[in-house]
Amino acid sequence: MFGDPGKQAVRSTVLVIDDEYGAQLQVELAFLTSDVVRLVGMASNGSHGAELAEQLQPSVVVLDLSMPVMDGFEAMPLIHAVAPRASILVRSSRDDEQSIQRAMQLGAGAFIPKFLHPDDLRRTVERAARGTSSPLLVEAVRRAGAMRAPPAPAPAPSWASS
Known about the structure:
Rossmann fold
């Protein structure tokens, strides 16, 4: 069900934790053609995901933040504890500064948008599995850092001082 276990080139494994069926399907389709990573499991909440992470010991965990039972923020420390070698890539539609910073503080290796094209998602996870950087990851981290400084307030219009 999760990729072709007979592929000899596969060096890394991926666990997806996301409660949205469409997102799970998109990720499964993204990895059908990968020779670098193989999808080994899926969970629909953080609690089940942490259990699978302990059992499967994946190289990479693709983790949503907003889920029932246990969200991604709660799951991250558990996943790190039971699968310490796994890289966690947060894939979420929540892209506000606070969510990105909190995910990074909890040990996420990257914060990637949920709407990322499946080919870009595959390449991003493959790079994470190899331990190399991705322009998409660098951009996400750069954007998170850039958001820390609030923009300067716009000057008041000249008519407002009258």
